[in-house]
Please model this.
Amino acid sequence: MAGIAYLPLHGGKTPKWLFQRMVKLSSIIIDAIIDLYGRDELIERLSHPIYFQSFGCLVGYDWHSSGVTTVMTGVLQQVLEKKDYGVYIVGGKGRRGRQVPDDLINRYSDILPSKRIDDLIKYSRLSAKVDTVLLQDNYSIYHHAIMFTDGGRWLIVQQGMNPDLKLARRYHILDRLLERDTEYVTEPHKGISGSRREKIVLDLTDRRSFENKKVMIDIVREHRLRRDWEKLVKLLKKDTLYRWIEREYSEANITREDIGNILVMPRDLNWKAVRKIYDVQPRNINELIMLRGVGAKTIRAISLVAQFIYGAEPSYRDPIRYTFTVGGKDGVPMPVDRKVYDELIDFYKSVIEHGEIGREKKKELINKLSSLYRPNI
Model:
């Protein structure tokens, strides 16, 4: 299943009365999913951006608000902390996202083996690098959360903001998609939701960027970057690159401004970090991007050299790919009816929690509710 969820930035806070009801209704739904399908199914469903968005809509949040991500993360945290499901979530907006490694160590060392904690920290950091360094779309990450089970599954949900456009994007990275490639991160996203497709995005996670990444490693291991960078700057000054791109992308109907977005040349590079890269001798792109001091500018510079000096092209294609029952926070498409909301919670409690219709009927009911949103796994 594929689609686009629009995520404009909205101000304000979720009213306490609405948040409390969101927690109650979400608790009932999550309890039923885990009881009928297991913890792994919850991870799989929430890994799909449209399902995640629909879940937020179902419990009363705006279908097109960037706040769905942060608010639903808070809702899920409260729900999962109340019962011993063996499913946990840490992180969130701003400082909470940056504290994920410390929270994993301080809060879950008694529950999970140290090796498991180390792996979660590693994938948390790698995912943050994926959506800031390997995927350069001008959306700065400000929300980072990881959901995980004591059985080994995990999901990372991040959100980035483009302040100029006043739009947000949400990135879903699922364990099996990132763990399958421990050297050259290739298409690890279960999905990316946002409001528009950008014309030019450097996507080094695209499988078509594989050769570019391999050449990048050769360049830094052989200490050729400064020499090759100077060659590239000379080509740019002669307008050679612009004319070459115009020929190569003639069918894409791109403008000179678009070409300028491809050739975003960092004004200065961290040559100290480049020397460190050479000393470390990274064996693959994963090891390269995890080095301290290696950020988006450095990676973009090496990628440009690999493309225009050695002919290994990366992908510039943007990888980006709803339901009300009780209303929305901002009154769209209608104000939240508190009485109806409470009646809905009571209804689900009676039908699902108390088991009045039997396990098979309960399963049938959940299947019907989920049929519109359940991802194709």
